[in-house]
């Protein structure tokens, strides 16, 4: 999320026409086309964040600027060339790093929250515990995971919550 993504479409021989067909999660279909014989481009139903990386007569790569969850979907490059037609399809999945929030509840137990991540994060604790987790799905496709720590012994000093996620792992410690 928030970064640029470049999808390549490498020609095999002399390109006559190139088309990017985009079917994103939100917004329907978008098409970018290029005809080499007249050096002309066309676009239909594409947001401003989706465009050719450079001029298509130099490079057929597609750039998605400031990638968001709505950009998830299939991106297909079709090349019409002297040697035939060629396709390359990408499936774009957007990862959202969760925010780690560690606090103490009213009973003095640590509570770890991995807020609005995609996919859902995994929460574990450094000390052994009888923890319970719950997940809350959000309409934008993100998930918040909440884990409550219950200690086996009452002489705890410091507790560490570990959040594991494909975008990177995080940890925080707390004394309740």
TrEMBL record:
InterPro entries: CD200R, CD80_C2-set, Ig-like_dom, Ig-like_dom_sf, Ig-like_fold, Ig_V-set. Its main location: membrane. It holds the Pfam family V-set. GO terms for cellular component: external side of plasma membrane. The keyword Transmembrane helix applies. Belongs to the CD200R family. This is Cell surface glycoprotein CD200 receptor 1-B. It comes from Cuculus canorus (Common cuckoo).
């Amino acid at each position: 999320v928030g970064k640029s993504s470049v999808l390549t479409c490498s020609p095999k021989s002399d390109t006559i026409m190139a088309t990017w067909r985009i079917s994103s999660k939100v917004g329907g279909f978008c098409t970018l086309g290029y005809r080499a014989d007249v050096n002309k481009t066309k676009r239909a139903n594409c947001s401003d964040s989706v465009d050719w990386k450079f001029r298509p007569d130099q490079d057929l790569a597609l750039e998605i600027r400031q990638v968001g969850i709505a950009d998830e979907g299939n991106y297909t490059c079709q090349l019409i060339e002297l040697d035939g037609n060629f396709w390359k399809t990408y499936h774009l999945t957007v990862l959202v790093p969760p925010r780690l929030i560690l606090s103490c509840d009213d009973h003095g137990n640590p509570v770890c929250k991995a807020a609005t991540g995609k996919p859902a994060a995994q929460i574990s604790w450094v000390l052994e515990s009888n923890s319970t987790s719950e997940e809350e799905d959000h309409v934008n496709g993100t998930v918040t995971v909440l884990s409550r720590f219950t200690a086996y012994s009452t002489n705890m000093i410091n507790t560490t919550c570990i959040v594991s996620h494909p975008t990177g792992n995080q940890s925080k410690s707390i004394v309740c």
